[in-house]
Amino acid sequence: MGDLCSCWDAIHNVMMLQHNEIRASFERSLHVKTHDFNIITYKKLVGVVSRVALVLIANEVDRVKNIGFDSELCGCMLRQTYGLPCACVLARYDVGVIPLGEIHIMWSRLSFSDILSAESILELGIQQEINLLTNRYKEVDITGKVTIKHKLREIVCPEQTSMIAPMHKVKTKGAQKTRAYRFERSTKRDPSYFEHVDAFHDSHLGKKDSQSKAKARAKGTYESMQQK
Asked: In angstroms, rounded to a whole number, what is the distance separating the alpha carbons of residues 103 and 82?
């Protein structure tokens, strides 16, 4: 409802307020330590990940006693939507330390700077995934090995894909109007042998009936002329 300058100032003030609130939440996550998370379970997470993530994880820790390792009962919603370990995953660390590798890297970005922390850099490594892939490659049969190799080649060398553009432009709308196309796509079947026989007999019976009717009409006309 205002001019450009007043709208600019209003939007700028709102964005600065949100920026300050986010910065304050970063500082609380880095420096404020509460009694709830002062246990060995959160040793590697406190001061490294967001307090919001810690609260969500704490709720899942309370569910571990009722769920255990049952993934179907757990539902794994927290892991799928937030990238945080759910109850069935936390059951493996019930009396131990939750590793930082179970937390999505998003929750460890506690600064507006583009410089990543040492923990974040470790999270970007793929050595663990490479080891898992190597073990999986050794276990599968020859078909599985070919599939894995093909998928890896598509990731590393996407320009070498086997998919190519069609040589001719394909018409995807409308049907062809040529007579040959209609013949090829026709759903009409060829008549069976007995259908040919029936048609032959029907045609001969039709001819005989028409001949007898013509003779009857001619005979009736002749008799009427005789009576006159």
From this structure: 9
